[in-house]
Sequence to fold (458 residues):
Amino acid sequence: MPLICIAAPKGGVGKTTLAANLAGTLHRAGQPVLAMDCDPQNALRLHFGLPVRDGAGFLMQLPLRPDWRSLVRDTESGVALLPHGANDIRAALRLAAALEREPELLLAPVRAMLAEPGLLLVADLPPGPSQMLNLLAPLADLVVTVLLADATSAALLPEIDSGRFLGSGALAALHAARVRVVLNQVEATSRLSRAVAGAMARHLGPRLLGAVCRDEAVAEALATQRLLHAEAPGSAAALDIADIARGITALLPPLPLPPTPLPMEPVAP
Amino acid sequence: MLYPVQGNNCEMARDPDVARVAAALKSPGLRYRSFGNEPVRGAASQSVDNSLDSFPLVGAAIEAATAETQQFPPAAELHASVPPPSFVPLPADFASRPSPGPVDLSYPLPEPTRPAAPPPAAEIPCRSAPPAAERPYRPMPPPAEPLAPSDTLAALLNGVAQGVSRPSWPAPMPQACCPPAWSPSRLPR
Fold:
């Protein structure tokens, strides 16, 4: 089933926030969604109400070959969540080395997830080029790349256009065809934001999936550990994100409905 | 652009080149005088997007990205599941076959008939519905209304033609029919 990678060539662009809210919006549209946090900042869980001190996760356990199904967390939003897991520098280096040595540590469980009928997998990737992105981009149906309407993001457009940002060597240009861009935190009152966003819109054309306005409601939703559509459903940013979710669904192949699940005990968050 | 200063001499507007020279020489008062001549740099060489003139880095970035796009043009097809168009070779004796002759235009052609409209979209089955023998596929959304983009994107796209039109969004499922939280079967496979 489809894999949507949420990536960004640089940090601090609101990638994780957009990943969480897109996952929630796509689930509300009727599709079962599994959100997988591949970003070592381990922040995706916070958008879904998991406690700050809850450090359990999936990615950090990859060297131990865990059963991913046993680590899926149910969330209030209905989105199933695989947190990254708390980590430190040693654990992060150990994970990077293990993935470099044995990519199947990640690819095998991801392929199992993608084999679940009707399940939409949303992966929040680390900012910048990464081994995660290098491994997952070839499997992805869509790589949603988040940028800001500023000069730094504009300067990264050549990396996106060439596909170098995705890695994968000579195949990068091939995977670049699946890249769509979202401009985040666009400010209509800022001359620079308007100029950059307008220039990017003209340059990207249909590759621009959408734009999200700067909205205080986004930060407030995270502060309450709720998704935007639950905290401020009528906010301008929520409407922008819903529009982007529509664009994503339109780009994906038709999805079969999932089979009836077996009765099971819920996992406490 | 020229404008007269002090007699017959003319002073050019402070374009980026003049500003750079002034900054390099640490002479903010430096002016360039054209002495009434037409500017060498023609209008065609000016930046296409005047709004970026104030932000040289942004303009340079867009130019670099455009160069990358020309080097690596994005593929037209997005999804790998879309098969390439098939090519059916002509039969070997095609060239030796007799010509079909002229077309008889007097032959009465039947009125073209439109294909029958599909039945109205059935309701999306709930997960609680009994499992069918074959999993139903989500019906295609009706191509009724064009989708109005969000305010933010619409403002950006003011005057920018988009290459693709987005299909409409399937109607949200009623709450009772919304899928419950997906959970995997925790049995290892």
Observations:
- The beta strands of chain B are 2-4, 10-12.
- Chain B touches chain A through 68 residues (CB under 8 Å).
- The mean pLDDT of chain B is 60.
- Residues 1-41 of chain B form one domain.
